[in-house]
From TrEMBL:
Pfam families: ABC_tran
Keyword ATP-binding carried by entry: yes
The ABC transporter domain, residue ranges: 2-239
SMART domains to which the protein is assigned, alphabetical: AAA (SM00382)
Ranges annotated as spanning the membrane: none
Family the UniProt entry places it in: Belongs to the ABC transporter superfamily.
Protein name in UniProt: ABC-type quaternary amine transporter
EC number per UniProt: 7.6.2.9
GO terms of molecular function: ABC-type quaternary ammonium compound transporting activity; ATP binding; ATP hydrolysis activity
Keyword terms of this UniProt record: ATP-binding, Nucleotide-binding, Transport
Species of origin: Saccharopolyspora karakumensis
């Protein structure tokens, strides 16, 4: 665990305090996200934790040890650091960059080689294709991946990540976020993550610290509680008007009962299709393939025709959430979405009405009206 105790930093010659009397516990194995407007002290706090800069006053404890009593070089080997600009050494290969900390730790060449390949695999870059390239031969997203791999190099217990996905386009950013969450689930490190983006904070954080001007924390809590009970107007304004919609993204489909739906076999003959259509209380039947995977929608009115099936693009899985479900329905202009289990097999169908019911059950009255205005 990292404990910050009345941590204060005033840069020489500056009138405002960069970080003021900050007290916070960062539990081991969790992702804590610092979010807030520009210049409110997020990066300064990170640099204080790994002693790239020294505090004016206050203490930082890492697993019970006061970090000011540890040699800064030794400390930085225990703490991985990844930043937006990646900070990769341009004249060193990818492998050399990733090997930076293992080399400082005095590992032998064989162990370093194996570690480099393991980390490239972990961040989704094929070792044989990438280990000998130079940073400028990589896309921005690939450089970010190498930056993350390098920060993981010495197998640190703690990772500090300062806008690691900042300069990435939305699609690659989402892929990197997902990959990073997977790596975190696998390795269970303590992570402090800085971002400007509240949606990224909600997605990534076990806890979020919302910083305000002058290096103070306006609220430090789980995303659920921050969205449900913002501490003050500053936090509400920072969250923006869609706080209730954002809360939907915290309710995973694996935690929701998915209602059953009239289904039909993909190779059912005309009579079977008509029989199911007659019984069904819905306008569409869900078509399942031989493996019980949803493959299309059959409009009830087209049940007599052999080519009436509308192909289903992508069903929702256990890793999707209610926000994804709502987005999919809105973007396909549909009022229902098929849901599958981990194995891709049919689980049920979520309807817009069931999302409304879940909102009624889950959200306090005020947020509910905020959300329903938005739909
Ligand atoms: N080396 C420095 N010397 C003097 N002042 C500094 C220095 N570094 C940061 N500051 C000031 O300290 C305050 C906090 O800066 P910091 O970089 O920690 O903010 P931040 O929240 O990370 O901002 P951003 O989101 O823009 O990266 C700012 O007012 C900044 O101008």
């Amino acid at each position: 665990m990292i404990r910050l105790e009345r941590l204060t930093k005033c840069y020489p010659g500056q009138q405002t305090t960069a970080v003021r009397e900050l007290t916070m516990d960062i539990p081991a194995g969790e992702i804590v996200v610092f979010v807030g407007p520009s210049g409110c002290g997020k990066t300064t706090t990170m640099k204080l934790i790994n002693r790239l800069i020294e505090p004016t006053s206050g203490r930082i404890h890492l697993d019970g040890t006061d970090v000011t009593e540890v040699n800064p070089d030794q400390l930085r080997r225990k703490i991985g650091y990844a930043i937006q600009q990646t900070g990769l050494f341009p004249h060193r290969t990818v492998a050399d960059n990733i090997a930076t900390v293992p080399r400082m730790l005095g590992w032998d060449a064989k162990r370093i080689d194996a570690r480099v390949d393991e980390l490239l695999d972990l961040v989704g870059l094929e070792p044989t294709a990438y280990r000998n390239r130079y940073p400028k031969q990589l896309s921005g997203g690939q450089q970010q991946r190498v930056g993350v791999a390098r920060a993981l190099g010495g197998d640190p217990d703690v990772m500090l990540m300062d806008e690691p996905f900042g300069a990435i386009d939305p699609l690659n950013r989402e892929a990197l976020q997902n990959e990073f969450l997977r790596i975190h689930a696998e390795l269970g490190k303590t992570i402090v993550f800085v971002t400007h983006d509240i949606d990224e904070a909600i997605k990534m954080g076990d806890r979020i610290a919302i910083f305000r001007e002058g290096g103070q924390v306006a609220q430090y809590d789980t995303p659920e509680r921050i969205l449900a009970q913002p501490a003050d107007d500053f936090v509400s304004d920072f969250l923006g008007s869609g706080a209730a919609v954002k809360r939907l993204s915290l309710i995973g489909l694996d935690a929701v009962d998915i209602p059953d739906w009239p289904t039909i076999d993909h190779d059912a003959d005309r009579d079977q299709r008509l029989a199911v259509a007659q019984r069904a209380a819905k306008d569409f039947l869900l078509v399942l393939d031989a493996e019980n995977r949803p493959s299309g929608w059959l409009p009830r009115k087209a049940a007599a025709e052999s080519d009436g099936v509308i192909p289903l693009i992508s069903p929702l899985g256990p890793r999707h959430n209610l926000f994804d479900a709502l987005s999919q329905m809105l973007s396909f202009n549909s009022s229902a979405a098929a849901v599958v289990g981990d194995d891709g097999r049919y689980r049920g169908v979520l309807e817009l009405d069931s999302i409304r019911e879940l909102i009624n059950a889950e959200l306090p009255g005020e947020s509910r009206s905020d959300l329903l205005q938005g739909v």
